[in-house]
Amino acid sequence: MTDINLYGRIFITAQIEALTGLHIGGSAAGLEIGGLDKAVIRNPLTNRPYIPGSSLRGKMRSQTEKVLGLRQNNPIGTVKIHTCKTPADYNANGGCPVCHVFGVPGEVEATGPTLLVVRDVALTEASAAALQAAKPDLPYAELKTEVAIDRVTSAATPRTVERVPAGAVFGPAEFVFSLYDAADYARLRYVVEALQLVEDDYLGGSGSRGSGKVKFSGLRVSARARQTYSKSVVFREFADVQGLAEALGELQTWAQQTVPIEPSNAS
Question: What domain range includes position 25?
Answer without folding.
Answer: 8-259
